Amino acid sequence: MEKKYKLIIIGAGIAGLSTALAWNKLYNPEDVIVLEKNPIPGGCVTTFGRDGFRFDTTQIIPDVSNLLEFFDVEIKLKKFDTYYVRLFLANPKKGTVKIFPIASSKEDFQDNMIENFPEDGWAIKNFFQYCQEMHDELNHLKTEPKLRHIPGILLKCPKIIANSNLTYHQFLRKFNFKNPEVFQLLDTFSSFSGLSGDRCAALLTACAMITTLKGAYRPEKGFIQFPVTLKKKLESQGTEVRTHCEVQQILTKNGKVTGVRLQNGDYLQANLVVSTVDTKVTFSELLDFQKKDKYFRKVREIKISPSGFSIHLGLDDKIDLNALGFNCGYNVLTTPGAFEKAFGHWDRQELMMSNDCFHMAAICPSVMTSGKPTLVLHVVPVPSEKWIALYDSDSKKYSQEKLTAIDFYINKLEQYMVPELSRHVVFTDISTPATYRRYIGSPTGSQYDMLPVPSNFGKNRLKSRTTIKGLFITKFSHGIWPSMQAGLQIVDMISGGKIMNGNSALR
Ligand SMILES: Cc1cc2nc3c(=O)[nH]c(=O)nc-3n(C[C@H](O)[C@H](O)[C@H](O)COP(=O)(O)OP(=O)(O)OC[C@H]3O[C@@H](n4cnc5c(N)ncnc54)[C@H](O)[C@@H]3O)c2cc1C
Fold it and tell me: What stretch of H or E contains 473?
């Protein structure tokens, strides 16, 4: 046995690093260690270079300034000023596309919508006011509500309670929009949830919309700045962040956590372990002990979110991405109903690749962070089984299929978003479910961990405090902001409320 720690954190992604920083607010920084299997921290959040091009894996964050202040770290962020998302609604039959920019503030977005859809003016106003009020109710939620908190929550969170079992589409229908384009425009926010509006919890999509409409940002020097800055801060405080260090097992005795076993055979002791690893993996592969209680039954039942493609394009300097309006965070190119149809295919482990029905997002990091021009395309959902099997068994076919996918998506972008794009492409690269499996450590290459369906979101979510004493998980919701909050929640639970008094978020 090596040194005994009080807390071991598995994974140096945003959740793991934030948990350690929250710990250091209260306790001795040398009593916690962060173990990361990769050579660098960050997990899903990183920046990488290829052929002189720099690409980010992530694209947008809401205002996290209070969290950075709390951790006493500085990361320079650029705000998307005029609009932060654009919806490209394509009509493949006519070969046309309608573009809807989504303004960078709730008031401007609401005013634009009322101007464009006057027949729905009242419903639009009502929608934004309702979502804002529902979002503000989050301030009254507790991470682990006790019986005495329930009357207060019932009184102060009526909208959250009324909508907690609804999908985003069921929620949208309550507002009776007359023009179907209003519904389609508001459905853009489902893309942030990584799940179609027909399936995703209303609470997640509506509140993520309000949060990002308060301000959407990107780190000036790329997303890698996030994990690197958090890691440096931890090390300056005396906490070890050990990379190239894979945890193979979480050890328990009499239903209590006792430490971890590393891949190199070493053991580390601790009575508290936080796992930021894929939830299914934590329970089915890392734990040396399986319980038969309700919690473990839920773990077995929950579905993990899909994987996707990230297509990285390096472009020549003859293209003017600024002039094409790419100085925003996120561009969704879709056809009506395509996102849900793509999930129908995913249910059958098929990839939807059709000229009449498609859904993707395009992001341009280089306009905000400078450097050689780049475009990144995200496609979700992509069935994991086929891509992982191809990667493992037939590298030639895997490479061919990757090229087919790259060509298809470049073609769609060229048709509806970036004229003559293919002429400017000088570099291509694609991350598939096999890449995400390798990099994040989820066997299905899942990008967002647990599927945020109503039956597993909010009050129904698999709890962060597990039924193994001393073992916690951080995946209460996906995203950089929720992952930072998850770290605070865990230390708040451990300390009996000393970080945020049992509240579900630091505000
Ligand atoms: C393509 C993509 C785009 C996204 N875009 C955005 C965005 O624009 N904005 C946003 O807010 N969110 C975005 N997200 C979501 C966000 O990045 C994640 O929700 C968040 O970063 C998750 O952080 P985490 O620490 O929980 O998990 P992870 O980032 O997955 O970190 C877990 C860490 O654990 C390590 N690990 C795994 N197994 C082991 C083991 N056995 N031993 C040791 N270490 C291990 C992994 O290597 C990894 O570093 C995106 C995610 C993806 C995949």
Answer: strand 471-473
Q: Which residues line ligand 1 (CB under 6 A)?
A: 10-16, 35-38, 43-45, 57-61, 246-247, 276-277, 310, 378, 440-441, 447-448, 474, 478-481, 483
For strands 32-35 and 330-334, give the pairing.
Answer: unpaired
Pick the CATH number of 77-104+306-447 from 3.30.300, 3.90.660, 3.10.20, 3.30.1150: 3.90.660
Question: Measured between alpha carbons, how far is residue 379 from residues 53, 311, 333, 450, 503 in Å?
Answer: 21, 8, 10, 18, 35
Phi and psi angles of residue 446, each rounded to the nearest 5 degrees, phi first: -60, 135
Q: Report the predicted TM-score, pTM, of the whole model to 2 decimal places.
A: 0.97
- Residue to probe by mutation, ligand 1, list 58, 223, 273, most atoms within 8 Å of CB: 58
> What CATH superfamily is the domain 7-47+63-76+221-302+449-495?
FAD/NAD(P)-binding domain (3.50.50.60)
- Return the domain boundaries, the chain: 7-47+63-76+221-302+449-495, 77-104+306-447, 131-214
2: confidence class by pLDDT, cuts 50, 70, 90 = low
Q: How far is the CA of 435 from the centre of ligand 1 (A)?
A: 13
Give the model's pLDDT for residue 3. 73
